[in-house]
From TrEMBL:
Thiolesterase that catalyzes the hydrolysis of S-D-lactoyl-glutathione to form glutathione and D-lactic acid. The gene is gloB. This is Hydroxyacylglutathione hydrolase. Residues 12-167 form the Metallo-beta-lactamase domain. InterPro entries: Clx_II_MBL, Glyoxalase_II_hydrolase, HAGH_C, Hydroxyacylglutathione_Hdrlase, Metallo-B-lactamas, RibonucZ/Hydroxyglut_hydro. The lineage of its organism: Bacteria, Pseudomonadati, Pseudomonadota, Gammaproteobacteria, Alteromonadales. The keyword Lipid biosynthesis does not apply. It comes from Pseudoalteromonas aurantia 208. GO terms for molecular function: hydrolase activity. Pfam families: HAGH_C, Lactamase_B. Keywords: Hydrolase, Metal-binding, Zinc. Its cofactor is Zn(2+). Belongs to the metallo-beta-lactamase superfamily. Glyoxalase II family. Pathway: Secondary metabolite metabolism; methylglyoxal degradation; (R)-lactate from methylglyoxal: step 2/2.
Length: 255
């Protein structure tokens, strides 16, 4: 039976470990640093057997070379169009792969970067820097239109699906979410929960689509009231279906 556990890295990254406790084998998602992964493996007397990469950014990939040096049989899965050159198994939209008892579908989710992919099934979903709790990744390479389409893909997953994203950004994202929707009681309740978790030095993750559908402004962007508190200096001059999403992303950039 596999369990998913966080490995802390840098200031606010989580490298997610998928560990089969019987086989003593581990897969990791987005190892930006090898050292904390090696410590985790030693602590659990486990072997690394696979790596999943969501996108090319250094804080998601810099540990791969050392980890595959120490564990040469480790397969590295990642997007076929990535700038990161350490991928041994290139993936496209709709591909699937199996990690212990889990079979994941590959979703291409451009926006944060052009190569970004997510690994999802109905139980758990690794969203990298695409979907954060109460937020979404910055648009470094892609457009608001692309990210809006990427977010639409998450509608296929049920409310109980667990979401494992890469950064502990929940508190800052919720501060923005409550500015967008000052009367949203689900956001208020979640702020209290996240505050308690962080006070106790516990992650605010994983989250679930059921919660995110109530609190995440970017999953809720199509609702008609989402721009009621938009600052006057944030303007998006188009009448596209992703107009609200684009305006919220611009607002968040300056928030
Ligand atoms: Zn990134």
């Amino acid at each position: 039976m596999a369990q998913v556990e966080p490995i802390n890295a840098f200031d606010d990254n989580y490298i997610w470990a998928i560990r089969d406790t019987d086989k003593k084998q581990v897969w990791v998602v987005d190892p930006g640093d090898a050292e904390p992964v090696l410590s985790y493996l030693a602590q659990h007397d486990a072997t690394l057997c696979g790596i999943l990469i969501t996108h090319h950014h250094w804080d998601h990939t810099n540990g791969v070379a050392e980890l595959t040096h120490v564990f040469p049989n480790t397969n590295v899965y990642g997007p076929q169009n990535s700038k990161f050159k350490g991928i041994t198994h290139a993936l496209r939209n709709g591909d699937s792969l199996t990690v212990f008892e889990h079979t994941f579908s590959v979703l291409t989710t451009p926006g944060h970067t052009l190569d970004h992919i997510c690994y999802c099934n109905d139980v758990l979903c690794f969203t990298g820097d695409t979907l954060f709790s109460a937020g979404c990744g910055r648009l470094f390479e892609g457009s608001a239109e692309q990210m809006w389409h990427s977010f639409k893909l998450f509608s296929q997953f049920n409310d109980n699906t667990l979401i494992y994203c890469t950064h502990e950004y929940s508190a800052a994202n919720l501060a923005f979410a409550i500015a967008v929707e000052p009367d949203n009681n689900d956001i208020k309740a979640h702020i209290e929960w996240v505050t308690t978790q962080r006070k106790n030095n516990l992650p605010s993750l994983p989250t679930r689509f059921g919660i995110e559908r109530k609190i995440n402004p970017f999953l809720r962007s199509d609702l008609p009231h989402m721009l009621h508190h938009l600052p006057h200096d944030v303007t998006v001059n188009n009448l596209t279906p992703w107009h609200n999403f684009a305006a919220l992303r611009l607002w968040k950039d300056q928030f």
